[in-house]
Give the backbone structure.
Amino acid sequence: MNSTTYIFLAIGITIGILIGYSQYSLKKNRSKKTPDRPFPHQWREILVQHVAFYNRLNPPKRTQFENRIHIFLLNVQIVGIDTEVTHLDRILIASGAIIPIFGFDSWHYSNLEVVEIHPDKFLIPNTQQYANGLVGWGAMEGRIKLSRKALAQGFYDTNDQKNVAIHEFVHVLDKQDGNIDGKLKKVMNEIDIMPWLQLINNKINHIHTGNSSIRKYGSTNHAEFLAVVSEFFFESPEKMKTEHPELYQTLDQFYNPKPKSKNLPKEQQKNPPKDPREVKSALMN
């Protein structure tokens, strides 16, 4: 290469870096948008009327949930396809997004840019199949498609183990390690994953034999199992706790991680003493 070629190559690389940095900065800045006004009263009324998860929270947790809803709506664009977006659409979509990550204080959907709301089922790109929900890939990366009809039904009936918003946002959470495979590697550690996969396989076998209250779609593969049982867990926690105690306990550990006691030695953080007198003794020694 001659010197001129090197100069043009250097300029091209520099421009590419600047464009990439600019796009990164825009995403980074967008993810930091926070509310500058109180949570709207009409939004709170929608939560009270339609979101059972919200109504199970105590007052301080409800305030936290509202704040997470507000932040999500400031940072993710919701667009209507052949329809107008309503306040109900926004709050139900945001609720479906926040419910799976509510136990993770600092987690947000940094790679999600747009949620499309369709009036009903929509055609999956490049196929002849229709769907109620879809996480985008390739050219559709950073997008989720949802059916309004299925979205509303998911929050209206809390006993059917179906909530398309929760289902699709669990797929997004699952995708954070690069694969939608039913393994939440950002949440689980290597010790957790093997027992989890064994539990999945056992439960899928029970579904196949017709000996399970988990809906059949959960037996499709590991990723769909995670999404389906997550719908079950968040919609009917007491029912799952009674009928699938081991599954309930495992999902509770995933979605509601217990904070570690900062002042205790590491070996006691893993098995913290339950008696307050034991805690006091541990801190004194």
